[in-house]
């Protein structure tokens, strides 16, 4: 049930006017006026093309924009006072907005959207990013039709990514999620996904909203909840994922969000993931994924240096997290020169699993555990870059697959660590 | 009750559409007739309507239910005599009920003597009364209306060995309005009935009177000239009589048929009707407000004619392809329910016999700007028979009681002009006037009540309309105003209860008085006026400042 104090009276009034819907499009925003214009027009076009007869609403959860973003979103409503000039619409299309805070928080935004979906009894919902510059009207169909027509509960996207884009996903999130839950979900953490009303309500009802984190990584938590709940999941190919330039400083928050969320979900998901062996590819609409190969400048030396420095400086921390054999091996690697450096898949998987088990044991502060993984990930990323610097798309994919299989093969090791935590 | 002498009587009218053939049979031959209709005038009067529109009753081979006329100045023998008609007309007038008859200007039956003469020889004086051609390639840009039966607008005549033009069935040749003799003759026909006392004509298929190469042969200036000439003569010789246009066109294309108040008095608003059904199914007012926004202003003396159903299919010509598909899928799932570009069903089956939906649709019919038409039988919720061909499924005999032949006729059932509806839900044992008369809460008595409320004020027939556009799109709300009088109409198009906030600040200080029960509702203040509406509920509130 939606918390009655959570939604403003004005937003409730807007929801009353919208009434029951078939389709809900959630759009979290914060000062997105520069990018949101084309996106909302694409959303509207996607609804009218893909679901011309459906009762639909666009729900904007805004984190306190000062650039007029909410006004842009609500301005694309189609009603008897605002007919769409070049679009034939059978029905009214509401586009409503609520401001949930003076600062953005993805968890609060998603919670707002989920609450709206529950109150409007939406059958199929989609959350889209206000920064997806390459969004196409077909995205709406791809993310919603499996739910609206085929009874799926969650549709995650797949993308064509640059081979070196999203290394934390390809080297940790994807293979570990796959090993845990037995489903090859390529993008478990995406700003774009579709979900059923029943999954949304189930997630809304979970006791996760008051942890003070403002819901960082909540989209991943949502996917993991679907997997742990054995909901029907499929994937839809959305095309090329636009590359976002990131600095080295972005890694720690990303690790916190992704790895922290993944590890924290292990406890509640244990009954499910502990019983899973192997993995299967979920139903996928369109290509399963794709790899872009154009040259990309990466400061590999810095990655290796930060790995070596981290292993040296965090030795005492690692001693409480890692097994002696893993730590010794990491210290050996840290001393290798650039040409000899190699962080093998098996060692990387053992490292991750030992971190996960330590996280559960809370041997030290959980946040410190997560942060301590960042320099080790840089070492793994260095190896991945070296292994794939001249690889074809298929070879990159084969290497990722080999890593995934290693995660699956060593899953008994995780279970063993887990059982020994008491 | 004498006739209202106001020359704008049609603006306040409520019209009841009747087919003599299927209304009541007085002589037991299985076919309705004028004496039978006259016998039922009390019923029509009690319903509260002020005009009757009769479908064609002229001599005809009846290959198009009388719209194929073989003699314009007589009554089909099955329906009685000219004297019977005259008597019926007088009786209707005695009850304050006006009579509108059909006049099919565009074409005759191929059995009409004029056509027989015309085809008989190239030199016949009436040869030029119809549109003849040596080829079937003229007027190529003209659409075919009856797509299900016709492949061309030209038909070969083996007698005169040439092609003749027909916009409807091939047995209905079009008259040639470029011929002054035809124009004169058709005015004489109209004059014949006007002199008898007929109050108005529904002029059938008016956009198609004149043909011109390189056009779509519809709505041509030459056609308007013909119609204006008829109107001028009508006003000169028969002031207070009325012309109603049947032109299935977009509102903007219909506007010229009103001219400057010098062509038609009234015209059907065809595009509104399917959108009312669409709005109800979508639970969204948008289709209705959209088409009314596109409806141009008409001269003060003119009026739109509104209807939910009539003797034809629920026409879907004036909708987009997507809208048509939606209408078919939601109102005519079975292909047998479809005909041409439309749906051949009656009101009650279209609305799943849901009394609430029937009421809200009639509520809109009675309160939107225009003169409403009630199709016979719809006031008691009659069903249809989609197993009958063409549009005959919605032209079955009126169901008067649960006895033999539903009280329509004493003939043996095999002799009836059309079979009665007999299914358990809509059949005459279940749905009939006698039974509904006896029930205070029957649809019939509700219809009488809503008609009485509508007739209690001129605001619905003559007032302006202002839409309120509440944020809840399931609510269609408007204010009708005439002078100092204002009526607030609120319709819930949804199958579920709705809350709506209305911006009535303009009417601050007014008390709302519900027009049916006369009960007061709270005074309008500065805040949005909050109402809760039950499923498909509607209110008519008189706004009163006391």
Give an overview in words:
The complex is a heterodimer of chains A (422) and B (546). Chain A has 422 residues and is α/β, with parallel strands linked by helices. Among the domains of chain A are: 1-150, no CATH class; 300-419, no CATH class. Helices cover 50% and strands 12% of the residues of chain A. Chain A contains 17 helices and nine strands. Chain A has helices at residues 9-18, 33-50, 69-74, 106-119, 138-148, 167-181, 197-204, 218-228, 251-264, 266-273, 300-313, 315-321, 324-334, 345-361, 366-388, 393-409, 411-419; strands at residues 23-29, 56-62, 94-99, 124-127, 154-162, 193-196, 233-240, 284-285, 290-292. In chain A, strand 1 (23-29), helix 2 and strand 2 form a beta-alpha-beta unit. In chain A, helix 9 (251-264) packs across helix 15 (366-388) and helix 11 (300-313) packs across helix 13. Chain A is elongated. The mean pLDDT of chain A is 90. The model of chain B has no long low-confidence stretch (mean pLDDT 95). In chain B, strands 1-2-3-7-8-9-10-14 form an eight-stranded parallel β-barrel. In chain B, strands 15-16-17-22-19-20 form a six-stranded antiparallel β-sheet. Chain B is 27% helix and 18% strand. Chain B folds into three domains: 9-106 and 180-455, TIM Barrel (Alpha-Beta Barrel), CATH 3.20.20; 113-165, Oligo-1,6-glucosidase, domain 2 (Alpha-Beta Complex); 464-544, Immunoglobulin-like (Sandwich). With 546 residues, chain B is of the alpha/beta class. The radius of gyration of chain B is 23 Å and the shape is globular. In chain B, helix 10 (272-282) runs antiparallel to helix 11 (286-293), helix 10 (272-282) crosses helix 12 and helix 14 packs parallel to helix 16. Chain B starts with 8 loop residues before the first helix and ends with a strand.
Question: How much strand content do the residues of chain B show?
Answer: 15-25%
Uncertain runs of chain B with pLDDT below 50, 5 residues or more? none
The total count of strands of chain B amounts to 22
Total count of strands of chain A: 9
- Widest β-sheet, arrangement of strands of chain B: 1-2-3-7-8-9-10-14
Number of domains of chain B: 3
Structural category of chain B:
alpha/beta
Strand content of chain A: 5-15%
Report helical residue fraction of chain B.
25-40%
Largest protein interface, residues of each chain: A-B, 20 and 26 residues
Helical amount of chain A: 40-55%
What string gives the helices and strands of chain A in order? HEHEHEHEHEHEHHEHHEEHHHHHHH
Oligomer: heterodimer
What is the overall silhouette of chain A? elongated
What is the averaged pLDDT score of chain A? 90
In this structure, how is the largest beta sheet of chain B organized? 8 strands, parallel, barrel
Mean pLDDT of chain B: 95
User: Radius of gyration of chain A, Cα only, in angstroms?
Assistant: 22 Å
The CATH topology of the largest domain in chain B is given as TIM Barrel
- List the total number of helices of chain A: 17
């Amino acid at each position: 049930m939606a918390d009655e104090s959570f939604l403003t009276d004005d937003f409730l009034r807007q929801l009353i006017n919208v009434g029951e819907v078939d389709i809900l499009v959630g759009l979290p925003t914060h000062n997105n006026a520069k990018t949101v214009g084309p996106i909302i027009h694409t959303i509207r076009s996607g609804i009218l093309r893909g679901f011309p007869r459906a009762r639909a609403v666009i729900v904007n959860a805004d984190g306190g924009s000062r650039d007029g973003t909410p006004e842009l979103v609500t301005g694309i409503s189609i009603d008897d006072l605002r007919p769409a000039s070049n679009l034939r619409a059978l029905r009214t299309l509401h586009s409503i907005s609520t401001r949930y805070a003076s600062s953005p928080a993805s968890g609060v935004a998603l919670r707002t959207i989920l609450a709206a979906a529950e109150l409007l009894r939406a059958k199929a919902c989609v959350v889209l990013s206000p920064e997806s510059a390459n969004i196409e009207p077909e995205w709406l169909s791809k993310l919603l039709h499996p739910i609206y027509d085929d009874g799926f509960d969650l549709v995650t996207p797949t993308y064509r990514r640059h081979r070196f884009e999203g290394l934390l996903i390809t080297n940790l999130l994807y293979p570990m999620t796959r090993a845990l839950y037995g489903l090859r979900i390529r993008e478990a953490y995406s700003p774009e996904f579709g979900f059923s009303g029943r999954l949304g309500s189930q997630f809304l009802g979970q006791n996760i909203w008051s942890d003070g984190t403002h819901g960082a990584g909540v989209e991943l938590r949502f996917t993991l909840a679907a997997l742990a709940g054995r909901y029907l999941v499929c994937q839809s190919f959305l095309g090329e994922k636009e590359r976002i330039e990131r600095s080295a400083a972005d890694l720690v928050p990303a690790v916190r969000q992704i790895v922290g969320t993944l590890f924290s979900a292990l406890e509640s998901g244990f009954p499910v993931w502990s019983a899973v062996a192997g993995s299967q590819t979920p139903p996928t609409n369109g290509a399963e994924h794709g790899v872009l190969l154009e040259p990309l400048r990466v400061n590999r030396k810095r990655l290796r240096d930060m790995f070596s420095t981290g292993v040296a400086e965090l030795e005492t921390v690692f001693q409480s997290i890692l097994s002696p054999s893993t730590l010794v091996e990491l210290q050996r690697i840290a001393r290798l020169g650039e040409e000899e450096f190699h962080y093998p898949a098996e060692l990387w998987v053992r490292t991750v699993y030992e971190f996960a088990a330590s996280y559960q044991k809370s041997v030290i502060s959980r946040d410190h555990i997560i942060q301590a993984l960042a320099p080790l990930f840089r070492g793994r990323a260095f190896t991945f870059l070296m292994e794939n610097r001249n690889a074809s798309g298929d070879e990159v994919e084969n290497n990722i697959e080999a890593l995934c299989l290693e995660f699956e093969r060593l899953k008994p090791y995780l279970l063993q660590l887990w059982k020994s935590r008491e | 009750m004498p006739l209202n002498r106001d020359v704008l009587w049609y603006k306040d009218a409520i019209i009841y559409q009747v087919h003599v053939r299927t209304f009541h049979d007085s002589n037991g031959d299985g076919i309705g007739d004028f004496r039978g209709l006259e016998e039922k005038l009390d019923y029509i009067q009690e319903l509260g309507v002020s005009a009757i529109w009769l479908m064609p009753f002229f001599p005809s081979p009846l290959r198009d239910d009388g719209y194929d006329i073989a003699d314009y100045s007589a009554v089909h023998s099955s329906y009685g005599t000219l004297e019977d008609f005259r008597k019926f007309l007088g009786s209707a007038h005695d009850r304050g009920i006006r009579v509108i008859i059909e006049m099919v200007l565009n074409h005759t039956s191929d059995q009409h003597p004029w056509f027989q003469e015309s085809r008989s020889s190239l030199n016949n004086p009436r040869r030029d009364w119809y549109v003849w051609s040596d080829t079937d390639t003229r007027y190529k840009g003209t659409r075919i209306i009856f797509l299900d039966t016709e492949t061309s607008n030209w038909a070969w005549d083996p007698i005169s060995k040439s092609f003749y033009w027909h916009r409807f069935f091939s047995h209905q040749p079009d008259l040639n309005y470029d011929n002054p003799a035809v124009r004169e003759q058709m005015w004489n026909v109209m004059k014949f009935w006007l002199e008898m006392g007929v109050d108005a004509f529904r002029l059938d298929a008016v956009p198609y009177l004149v043909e011109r190469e390189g056009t779509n042969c519809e709505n041509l200036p030459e056609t308007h000239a013909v119609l204006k000439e008829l109107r001028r003569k009508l006003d000169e010789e028969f002031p207070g009589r009325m012309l109603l246009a049947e032109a299935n066109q977009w509102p903007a294309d219909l506007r010229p048929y009103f001219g400057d108040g010098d062509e038609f008095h009234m015209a059907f608003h065809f595009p509104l009707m399917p959108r009312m059904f669409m709005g109800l199914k979508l639970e969204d007012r948008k289709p209705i407000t959209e088409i009314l926004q596109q409806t141009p202003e008409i001269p003060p003396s003119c009026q739109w004619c509104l209807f939910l159903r009539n003797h034809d299919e629920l026409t879907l010509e004036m909708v987009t392809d997507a809208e048509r598909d939606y209408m078919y899928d939601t109102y005519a799932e079975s292909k047998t329910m479809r005909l041409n570009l439309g749906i051949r069903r009656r009101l009650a089956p279209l609305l799943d016999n849901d009394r609430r939906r029937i009421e809200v649709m009639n509520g809109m019919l009675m309160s939107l700007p225009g003169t409403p038409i009630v199709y016979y039988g719809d006031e008691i919720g009659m069903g249809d028979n989609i197993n009958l061909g063409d549009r005959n499924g919605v032209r079955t005999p009126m169901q008067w009681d649960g006895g033999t032949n539903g009280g329509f006729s004493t003939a043996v059932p095999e002799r009836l002009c059309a079979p009665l509806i007999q299914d358990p839900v809509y059949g005459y044992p279940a749905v009939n006037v006698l039974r509904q008369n006896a029930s205070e809460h029957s649809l019939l008595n509700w219809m009488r009540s809503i008609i009485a409320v509508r007739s209690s004020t001129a605001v619905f027939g003559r007032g302006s309309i202002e839409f309120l556009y509440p944020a809840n799109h399931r609510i269609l709300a408007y204010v009708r105003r005439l002078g100092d009088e204002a009526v607030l109409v609120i319709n819930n198009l949804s199958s579920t209860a709705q809350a709506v906030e209305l911006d009535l600040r303009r009417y601050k200080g007014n008390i709302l008085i519900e027009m049916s029960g006369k009960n007061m509702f709270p005074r309008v203040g500065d805040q949005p006026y909050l109402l809760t509406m039950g499923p498909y509920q509607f209110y008519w509130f008189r706004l009163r400042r006391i």
